[in-house]
Amino acid sequence: MKTAGCYLLVLALLLGPVFQICAADKPGSCPFAGVCDLLSFDVRCNGDESCGGTQKCCRNLCTILCLDAVL
């Protein structure tokens, strides 16, 4: 059990910068993302400025992509 906790902590520290890509540049927040298997992680946007209209760059399970903001 301790090993799994250590892996999760290390994963959180390593992925912190990835989730900073999705900083709140536009109003609203991203919808709840759920849990992801990191072996299939995919990045499709690099910040809110890479999304059209009012969409935000958000994590959605195993993908970072443009989604409609939750206001």
Automatic annotation (TrEMBL):
<dbReference type="InterPro" id="IPR036645">
    <property type="entry name" value="Elafin-like_sf"/>
</dbReference>
<dbReference type="Pfam" id="PF00095">
    <property type="entry name" value="WAP"/>
</dbReference>
<feature type="signal peptide">
    <location>
        <begin position="1"/>
        <end position="24"/>
    </location>
</feature>
<dbReference type="GO" id="GO:0005576">
    <property type="term" value="C:extracellular region"/>
</dbReference>
<feature type="domain" description="WAP">
    <location>
        <begin position="26"/>
        <end position="70"/>
    </location>
</feature>
<dbReference type="InterPro" id="IPR008197">
    <property type="entry name" value="WAP_dom"/>
</dbReference>
<protein>
    <recommendedName>
        <fullName>WAP domain-containing protein</fullName>
    </recommendedName>
</protein>
<dbReference type="GO" id="GO:0030414">
    <property type="term" value="F:peptidase inhibitor activity"/>
</dbReference>
<keyword id="KW-0732">Signal</keyword>
